[in-house]
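Dear V.,

Thank you for sending over the compound details. I've combined the ligand you provided, pyridoxal-5'-phosphate, with the protein sequence from our construct and run the structure prediction for the complex. I'm sharing the raw inputs here so there's no ambiguity about protonation or stereochemistry in the SMILES, which I know was a concern on your side last time.
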Amino acid sequence: MPPMSAVMPTYARTDLVFERGEGAWLFTASGEKFLDFGAGIAVTALGHGHPHLVEALKQQADALWHTSNLYRIAGQERLAERLVGASFADCAFFANSGAEALECAIKMARKYQSACGAPERYRLITFEGAFHGRTLATISAGGNEKHLEGFGPPVDGFDQVPFGDIDAVKKAIGEETAGILIEPIQGEGGIRTVPWRFLRELRALADEKGLLLLFDEVQTGIGRTGKLFAYEWSGMAPDIMALAKGLGGGFPIGACVATSQAAKGMTAGTHGSTFGGNLLAAAAANAVLDVVLEPGFLDHVQAAGLHFKQKLAAICDENFDVVEDVRGEGLLLGFKCRVPNADVVAAAARQGLLTVPAGENVVRLLPPLIVSDAEIDEACGRLSRALAELAPAARAAR
Ligand SMILES: *Cc1c(COP(=O)(O)O)cnc(C)c1O
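Below is the predicted structure of the protein with pyridoxal-5'-phosphate bound, written out as structure tokens.
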């Protein structure tokens, strides 16, 4: 590809072009081989070229692609039933991305309070370090100055409090509060796990004050943490949950699922999407669920995650000049660096290992959920070599 491109330069891209993928592996046109532990940012949950997904999309592509939501869509209804059957929710709305799933969640929380006779309750409490997408409302919810800069006044209706601070949440609740929005584990923020106890405290607080609890499981959902949804670890459930990333296994689809109570304001005409949950997207997501819901699949994710985390802890010990700590659950893992995380991502890529940077100077490791122990061991070898390369400079700098 030519060095300059007509694509708007909103991304700091690595100069790599992939042509083919197979499971946890990606191949460039010149035949270079990479272990893909970024999975398209936690999207290709079943790896590249999974035969069941490929077959499902091919069959759907032959039959019918798109009809719009003016008509019933059998695959979408089946997908909704399955998400509902496997979660706390009673119904699902389909969108095309994580940010859109969050837009539905935010609108639904406001509409719920309005339908309850309290339209003045439209504000959501959010947390520092959060990431909810790049639309105008979701950058306001995330509150990251870098994302807001230059885009005019932030959308009103979000009150941000420090991470994990229950007293700050209590103080922030006012007459206009509609609900609380949180990621069970902050992904972009740096794989920051919210203590499960804290989530239970939020649940109790929401119930006490008549607020809705909204979970952003765009990154943590669809098996990433070893449960189908991360909230399951906490022993309680939210009222509304946003999903995307792994849901389509690489096909763009987002979903917002909710209890029928929380969704009571979402009547005909209140919300919509032209593409949301079309036949191709629903076929892809149903095929992902076929595999992820198979007995034993999530056990594999948990076992692989444990194996990986133990090996990472050892690597962390051996490379304490470069690595500060290891964090995460299941196959949503990461480590905090003592050198710029971009240097670690680049050194790993030179060893043929793809990783993803995150906030707090963290490097994320998000292999496809089908990853084998042998591939994890291979990735750890490559990561060790990358860290060893950075160690002398890191030691000199300390
Ligand atoms: C990626 C992500 C989003 C945004 O998803 P897009 O598909 O990029 O709009 C929202 N919330 C979380 C937690 C995410 O990880």
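A first observation: The pocket of pyridoxal-5'-phosphate is lined by residues 97-99, 102, 131-133, 183, 187-188, 216, 218-219, 244-245 (CB under 6 Å).

Warm regards,
I. M.
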